[in-house]
Write a sequence for this structure.
């Protein structure tokens, strides 16, 4: 078995198995898989419905809930969830009325949520180390409870999407036509935004609220160019997310890096490579 | 449906987006199997009128009825062909998937075999058979337009409403399209918003000139004055040398009416 020590890929495999001995690493891997499914499905809808900015706003506004939770001493997850839901519903409601100023409203909610979080963190006595990990994510923070919630969300999404696929496709491609066909577009819109907010809160643990927007947008945007259906885009972006998360986690473990940042940089590099390849292909055809 | 109920009824309908009204006191009826051309300048309220009939907008005053009921309740009997230019070409969707949208019924479950057959037929009817699995973004403007029409036909509508279906289609394809509409007109009512005044000449059985207000004219009274009313300072020449309602080219370039 001498070859085991020489070839680099095999060494990598050994490191991975070593890592698996730790409980937190097993949790992190499970979280990576679930995150990928969630981000693949939600991200596809977010990208095709142009809700990326709103997703960013929700993620940052959630920080207000985290700060408040630390100050009053309740669960930060709960605080984040309440803030994410409240801010997203507010944005959805206001943007429905004033579409043309949606970006300004999103910007305001984004910053105000963040500011509330920072102020409450200031007011909280003692050292608040926990806050940083919400900003950039930490695999150490993923708990069994998180995994259970993520599993629930992933299953829910996997059940809902096929059930209402036709409606979802019509809603994201041509809202007005969907409405003429009797599809309750407003209900779908709010359902999507609620699911998006809950998903963001669940994923924040893993990659942090600053970086979650990248995992929602990079894989679907990449996948879109290779797919001819929304379903295909969801599956491919889930697979891409998984590849990015696993390689990012490996790099984070190997070189002691922040997991969220490592995942995003891997995703960005892959995106660049994909874009270059597509350009070359188009150029070769012309 | 009683025979005396018109397909579409507008009764003193007012609608405004912000403050300035886009539609001012529109009153007209569209009888069964009419071929109505809605013409008028940009921003005159043509599309608004269509969306009021579709139930996408609610009138702020007056009432709109489709087959005698609220447009929303009748909307599944309507085939809608929106303006082609609003769609993202990056969107991952095939022609068949788009046409299948015409078979949607509210939140009701999956597509059935029958839906796929109807969608297929609609594509073939409009000369797009064989393009089922092609991505929308890879089709030409004219082909995309035809897919959108196939989608409306897949609904098996009683009224077909089209918003500038020939805006970006070449002249030859325009002719094919309007011939197809005339054929469909034997069975169903057609309402078409168009910049293209030539539609009136050979296809329309009635014309609505829209410039905030609606001037409705059935076939036997199409006169130059009415187009002037709608277009105001930018008149359109209409000559009726024995051939009724023949329309000639406008003074200005084609686009800036």
């Amino acid at each position: 078995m001498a070859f085991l020590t020489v070839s680099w890929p095999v060494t990598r495999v050994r490191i991975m198995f070593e890592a698996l001995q730790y409980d937190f690493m097993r949790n992190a891997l499970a979280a990576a898989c679930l995150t990928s499914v969630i981000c693949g499905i939600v991200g596809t809808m977010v990208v095709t419905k142009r809700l990326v900015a709103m997703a960013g706003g929700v993620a940052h506004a959630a920080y207000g809930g985290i700060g408040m939770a630390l100050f009053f001493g309740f669960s930060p997850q709960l605080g984040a969830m309440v803030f994410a839901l409240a801010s997203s519903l507010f944005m959805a409601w206001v943007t429905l009325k004033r579409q043309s100023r949606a970006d300004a409203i999103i910007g305001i909610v984004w910053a105000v949520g963040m500011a509330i979080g920072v102020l409450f963190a200031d007011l909280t006595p003692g050292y608040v180390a926990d806050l940083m990990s919400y900003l950039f994510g930490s695999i150490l923070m993923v708990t069994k409870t998180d995994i259970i919630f993520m599993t629930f969300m992933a299953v829910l999404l996997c059940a809902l999407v096929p059930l209402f696929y036709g409606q979802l496709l019509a809603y994201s491609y041509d809202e007005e036509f969907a409405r003429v066909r009797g599809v309750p577009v407003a209900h779908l819109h709010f359902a999507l935004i609620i699911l998006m907010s809950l998903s963001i809160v669940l994923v924040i643990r893993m990659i942090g609220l600053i970086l979650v927007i990248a995992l929602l947008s990079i894989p679907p945007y990449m996948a879109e160019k290779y797919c001819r259906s929304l379903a295909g885009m969801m599956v491919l972006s889930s697979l891409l997310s998984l590849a990015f998360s696993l390689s990012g986690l490996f790099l984070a473990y190997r070189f002691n890096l922040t997991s969220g940042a490592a995942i995003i940089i891997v995703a960005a590099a892959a995106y660049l490579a994909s874009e270059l390849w597509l350009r070359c292909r188009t150029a070769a055809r012309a | 449906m009683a025979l005396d109920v018109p397909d579409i009824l507008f009764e003193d309908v007012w609608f405004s987006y912000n403050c300035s009204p886009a539609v001012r006191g529109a009153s007209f009826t569209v009888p069964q199997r009419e071929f109505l051309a809605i013409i008028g300048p940009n921003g005159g309220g043509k599309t608004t009128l269509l969306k009021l009939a579709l139930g996408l907008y609610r009138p702020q005053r007056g009432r709109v009825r489709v087959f005698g009921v609220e447009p929303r309740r009748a909307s599944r009997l309507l085939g809608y062909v929106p303006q082609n230019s609003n769609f993202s070409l990056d969107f991952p969707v095939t022609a068949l998937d788009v046409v299948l949208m015409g078979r949607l019924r509210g939140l009701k479950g999956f597509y059935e075999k029958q839906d796929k057959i109807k969608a297929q037929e609609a594509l073939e009817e409009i000369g797009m058979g064989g393009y089922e699995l092609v991505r929308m973004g890879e089709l030409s403007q004219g082909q995309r337009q035809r897919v959108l029409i196939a989608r409306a036909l897949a609904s098996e509508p009683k009224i077909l409403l089209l918003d500038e279906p020939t805006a970006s289609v070449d002249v030859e394809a325009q002719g094919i399209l309007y011939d197809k509409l005339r054929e469909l007109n034997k069975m169903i009512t057609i309402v078409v918003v168009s910049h293209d005044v030539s539609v009136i000449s050979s296809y329309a059985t009635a014309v609505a000139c829209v410039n905030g207000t609606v001037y409705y004219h059935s076939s036997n009274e199409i006169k130059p004055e009415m187009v002037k009313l709608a277009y105001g300072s930018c008149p359109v020449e209409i000559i009726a040398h024995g051939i009724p309602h023949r329309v000639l080219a406008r003074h200005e370039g084609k686009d800036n009416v």
About this structure: The two ends of chain A are 51 Å apart (CA to CA). The CA atoms of residues 60 and 159 of chain A lie 28 Å apart.
